[in-house]
Design brief:
Length: 122
């Protein structure tokens, strides 16, 4: 089926008008609006990405602080165990066993909290 001569001519005229308006810059306002909307979306995405990065840094800092505090809290117990063992006492003493128990449970608790935090994150 061959299109009518008038239909082909009207498409050519429409294409010519669009080409002329693009060359003359009459569509610049529309392109500016699209560029402005795109810029707004990109800046919004950038803000969200920066917030997520700050949240990751905050959680990393809290995890580091928890590990350091656990180490500081464990230091007297480690000192006690080492002092008892060097002093000639054996592992069957109640104080040595309790100190060893704290030395094992404290890092285990910190590790469990850290793992729960990492697994909770999507």
């Amino acid at each position: 089926m061959v299109p009518a001569k008038g239909a082909v001519q009207s498409r050519d005229v429409t294409a010519d008008r669009e080409l002329l308006s693009a060359l003359a810059g009459t569509e610049a306002a529309r392109e500016g609006a699209v560029a402005h909307r795109t810029r707004r979306i990109v800046l919004g995405s950038l803000g969200i990405m920066q917030e997520q990065k700050a949240g990751r840094e905050r959680s990393r800092a809290l995890a580091t602080a928890a590990v350091l505090l656990a180490g500081l809290a464990m230091a007297p117990f480690v000192w006690r165990v080492v002092d008892d063992l060097i002093g000639g006492e054996n592992l069957c003493d109640l104080t040595t066993q309790l100190s060893l128990l704290v030395c094992v449970l404290c890092p285990a608790a910190v590790a469990a909290v850290l793992m729960a935090g990492w697994l909770r994150r999507p």
